[in-house]
Predict the structure.
Amino acid sequence: MDLSLLWFGIVGFLFIGCFVLDGFDFGVGMALPFLGRDEIDRRVMINTIGPVWDLNETWLIVAGASLFAAFPEWYATLFSGFYLALLLILLALIVRGVSFEYRHHRPESRWRSWFDGMIVVGSAVPALLWGVAFANIVQGVALDSNHNYTGTLFDLLNPYALLGGLTTLLLFFTHGVVFISLRTDGDLRLRAQRLAVRSGIVTIVVAASFLLWTNLAHGKPLSWILAGAAAVLLIGSFIANFRAKERGAFSLMAVTIAVAVLSLFAALYPNVMPASNNPANSLTIANASSTPYTLTVMSWTALIFLPLVVVYQGWTYWVFRKRVTRASIPQPTSTTVS
């Protein structure tokens, strides 16, 4: 078996896990100003992801570590060339995590509002920039003969990449709002369903435009098939949500994101970082991978531990599967502004 090809698939799987799981908790964070009418609503929304948001982010850590070990050339080019964008993602994740922990440490409403705002920003920035980053990876960037990125941050903010960022932003937002409807009850659940309908319409249009552009410019037969499947699944999720079938809507949205990411990896193959200025400078699965010995050791490690991670994550979601209600949230100690 070609281990470099296997690890291309494993890295794709890890990023799918990151986008599906981190995606909905980014969406919950972004939805705070739209659905949180009072402090109890906001506490309910945050509590829906409270037990799992940090576990979800481990997928990003594992994906980054796997990329570093399996494809060091890809990792070096990506993290040096996209340094500022990835630094912004890291800072946003730090701000978001701190805000979850500190918002309840003082009773003043201004204190909570400040940290709620940072949760929104800390959720929206990664949701946008991950789409920008992956769109640039698929489209290709300027690389020299040593595989160093020769462009600037502003070169990464091109129309195609910005459309990719808007796509992930809207997909994650809608994914999160559907998750809120799945995990809450009463008026908040109904408002989340209505918001998911409105955001779903925009998401379908933007995501379809991005996938169409991707495949017209870089598509292969498999990526076209996967993009079409993602479009059908996204419409199915919208219909399920419209009919108040939130469990089906959430499941279909999760599969939509997974298949859409697969479509991007299919369009990227066999490259891992195409060079837009000179195809000879492109990084491919073959020239970016580690030695066979390294990949062999990593494969045995993944075979042992990756199933354990998946089982543990599934068990965690099963334990915290019940809906979060307003009755389960203590009344705030103060609502004064100071």
About this structure: Strands lie at 271-273, 283-284. Residues 18 and 60 are 6 Å apart (CA to CA). The chain has 14 helices and two strands.
